[in-house]
Amino acid sequence: VIVLIDEYDVPLDKAYQDGYYPQMVSLIRSLFSQVLKTNPDLYFAVVTGFGRSISEVGAVMLVGGNIKGHTRTMTTTISLLKSQGIFTEGLTLGILLLFMAFVIQSLADFFQKGEQSDENY
């Protein structure tokens, strides 16, 4: 299932003008809650997308993601340093990237488990 969220402010404005704003807010709130907060598949998709995006070098290089000072990413910098033989800095950036990924993943897991434990009450 693909959910596209766009222009939800227009129905809210119309509801406000026509006097049924509380009902529309309740409807949109329950829709977002069902689709976003309680959806484990969405969590899996976000975590997978994050993992793929921090490890991607080839696609970044193809679309011009290695312009110094403008679009260089950590992965392209690591690749560049490795190809130049500057292994110490490349390894340091790689360890930093892994640490950042670990922290972000741990936070995502923590908040996901927190939401699951709240549902059991």
Verbal overview:
This protein is 76% helix and 0% strand. By secondary structure, the chain is mainly alpha-helical. The model has no long low-confidence stretch (mean pLDDT 80).
Attribute tags:
121 residues; mainly alpha
Give a short overview:
The protein has 121 residues and is mostly helical.
Main beta sheet strand tally, sense and closure = none
The SS-based structural class is mainly alpha
What does the overall shape look like?
A: elongated
Strand content: under 5%
Radius of gyration: 21 Å
Low-confidence stretches: none
Please give the structural blueprint.
Elements lengths: L8 H10 L2 H17 L2 H16 L2 H5 L11 H11 L2 H33 L2
Helix pairs in contact: 1-2, 3-6, 5-6
